[in-house]
Amino acid sequence: MTDIHVTSGKAGPTGGSRHLLEVKDLYVEFHTRDGVARVINGVSYHLDPGETLAVLGESGSGKSVTAQAIMGILDMPPAKIPSGQILYKGENLLAMSEEKRRQVRGKEISMIFQDALSALNPVFPVGWQISETLRTRAGMSRKEGLKRVVELMDLVKIPAAKARVRDYPHQFSGGMRQRVMIAMSLAMEPKVLIADEPTTALDVTVQAQIMDLLGDLRRDMNMGLILITHDLGVVADVADRIAVMYAGRIVEHADVRNVYKHPAHPYTEGLLDSIPRLDSKGTELATIKGLPPNLMRPPTGCAFHPRCKYAKAVCTTETPRSLDLGHGRTSACHFAKEMLDGTLR
Amino acid sequence: MAHSADNVAGSRPAGEPLLRVENLVKHFPITQGILFKKKVGAVKAVDGVSFELHRGETLGIVGESGCGKSTLAKLLMRLETPTAGRAMLKGKDIFKVSGSELRRMRRNIQMVMQDPYTSLNPRMTVGDIIGEPYEIHTEVAPKGDRQRRVQELLELVGLNPEHINRYPHQFSGGQRQRIGIARALALKPEIIVCDEPVSALDVSIQAQVINLLEKLQGELDLSYIFIAHDLSVVRHISDRVGVMYLGKMVEVGSDAEIYERPTHPYTQALLSAVPVPDPDARTHRDVIRLVGDVPSPANPPSGCRFRTRCWKAQERCSVEEPLLIRRGVEPHPSACHFAELRQVVA
């Protein structure tokens, strides 16, 4: 992390209302052989203790890259962070030395990944893998580590934890593997937990168990939880606030209830209309026409305009700024107010 | 399209099913030893499944991983030989036919695969992929006519017919799934088995493909067997729904019967676990949380297979296997001794 030019945005130094974690006007680009892909274009969000923030988006929207930037696990190069700040307890992670950053990673901010089977090492017992952090970071002995592992496995409700410490990942079911991953990420009792599609690979009944577990842990440990997902149902079930991403920007950011009742961005509205419902048969599904943009050659103006059913002339030329709609709600649409009034045609 | 005319001509009186599956069983042997393989057990992937499929109808099959829904799809495609049971397609058992009759039968049941990234050969052009079925079934399209037919199919599934010489990597996931659908339509089948056709796609693209499948069904009078784990998608597209658990069908009914009046505890738990895109549902929804995981199909529980995770389980459930029959006042069959209506979807 060498070339970071911090652009001071509109906000000055953090005042009295300091958040646990704050991403400020973050930009990330990937330098590839074919050119520069600007995957994150000015993303800002914040997280407080005990809160669940859902980051919703489709593949390629930049939701995982933002998380990787927070964790400091982006491959640089090809990735580059030309500007932006990630403040943890007021300190800019991007300006830290790698040595200092290591102290934050895992201990303060921790992450669980989508595919637990490929995130676990197949040739070591799970107990050994969970205790690895404890041995290297907390300086515990093997014996102490193992004792704590059993506690952690109990915490994530793995039955017969003591007997299963020496089992290998392949001996666990998908849901249990994800519990092992959660135990591992909780080993150092982090303040922020980033869950990147934690239940996408799981069956619905198991998904419900894991989401309940994450919710309980968040409450009991007063953690801030960032839930990255594409599932509008999961978001409605657990999140407090939601940030909807499209083409590397947050297009809408609001309290969950507001978003589902009255979306303030055409993309959010399109997403909500295009999902089939469990509680009614419905007629033909509304679709969002076209495809997500190629980030090597993003459209001019608003990145969503080629797919937007409300697009006007101004949308093709001017990139909409994030519009403050009050109550901590923002929308990056020129016509956000009209959308809320229901007068947009 | 030329398609629809043929299909309508072969139309049968309502009531008689197009496909009738009776007591279908598939056990995969578990063997031990290298040279002299000894059978030590069996994975009971599909264990006595029966259903009917009518013309122009969509039968949704839902269930969690390992319940046997994909094995069922492979059996219907005759990619696997069943251990027992039969499947009557227009009065003929699809597992008994051979030779030219088998080839004709295969034309009639086609499949759309789950993963549009791995189910298309990256070294073949789109034209070759969609036209390949004609190499085997030469009687469907004479050689000179193939390119025109492939272009017609591309147009039918909403792709540009001029892209016939492009390769799969030049298309997005949703477009690739359209190519897979065009390939399945090439031989003018009456039945299409869709195995998780939209689960690999993004939400906004998923809706496009679902609408396409529905449009094609209307135009070509197709019957779908729609296998998926997403219960909302299945409800949207299906006329009837079958719920599977560990190789057994536990409940079958119309979409309204299964979703609004479920009587099997597993169906109720499954529906209750689906997150609903409505934040207000958090507070007033009936929550049923199953404990544990699905048992191994190699060693399923005795009696009712769901009893190990069921909150209603009693002595009787471990000895007597519940049959899939009508119980009580509900008009649809349910395989539970204690079947009882419980509404879980608000």
Structure description:
By secondary structure, chain A is α/β, with parallel strands linked by helices. Helices cover 33% and strands 22% of the residues of chain A. Chain A has helices spanning 63-71, 98-104, 116-119, 126-137, 142-155, 161-164, 174-186, 204-221, 232-238, 256-261, 266-274, 313-317, 336-341, and strands spanning 21-32, 35-47, 52-56, 79-88, 91-92, 109-112, 192-196, 224-229, 241-246, 249-255, 323-326, 329-331. An 8-stranded mixed sheet of chain A has the order 6-7-8-3-9-10-12-11, sandwiched between helices. In chain A, strands 2-1-4-5 form a 4-stranded antiparallel sheet, with helices on one face. In chain A, α4 crosses α5, α5 (142-155) crosses α7 (174-186) and α7 packs parallel to α8 (204-221). The radius of gyration of chain A is 21 Å and the shape is globular. Mean pLDDT of chain A is 85; it is low at 1-16. Chain B folds into 2 domains: 2-238, Rossmann fold (3-Layer(aba) Sandwich); 263-346, no CATH class. Chain B is of the alpha/beta class. Classes of the chains: A alpha/beta (345), B alpha/beta (346). Chains A and B meet through α7, α8, α9, α10 and α11 of A and α7, α8, α9 and α10 of B.
Present the secondary structure layout.
The complex is a heterodimer of chains A (345) and B (346).
Chain A: E1 21-32, E2 35-47, E3 52-56, H1 63-71, E4 79-88, E5 91-92, H2 98-104, E6 109-112, H3 116-119, H4 126-137, H5 142-155, H6 161-164, H7 174-186, E7 192-196, H8 204-221, E8 224-229, H9 232-238, E9 241-246, E10 249-255, H10 256-261, H11 266-274, H12 313-317, E11 323-326, E12 329-331, H13 336-341
Parallel strand pairs in A: 3-8, 3-9, 6-7, 7-8
Antiparallel strand pairs in A: 1-2, 1-4, 4-5, 9-10, 10-12, 11-12
Chain B: H1 2-9, E1 19-32, E2 38-53, E3 58-62, H2 69-76, E4 84-89, E5 92-93, H3 99-108, E6 109-112, H4 126-136, H5 146-156, H6 173-185, E7 191-195, H7 203-220, E8 223-228, H8 231-237, E9 240-245, E10 248-254, H9 255-260, H10 265-273, H11 281-284, H12 315-319, E11 325-326, E12 333-334
Parallel strand pairs in B: 3-8, 3-9, 6-7, 7-8
Antiparallel strand pairs in B: 1-2, 1-4, 4-5, 9-10, 11-12
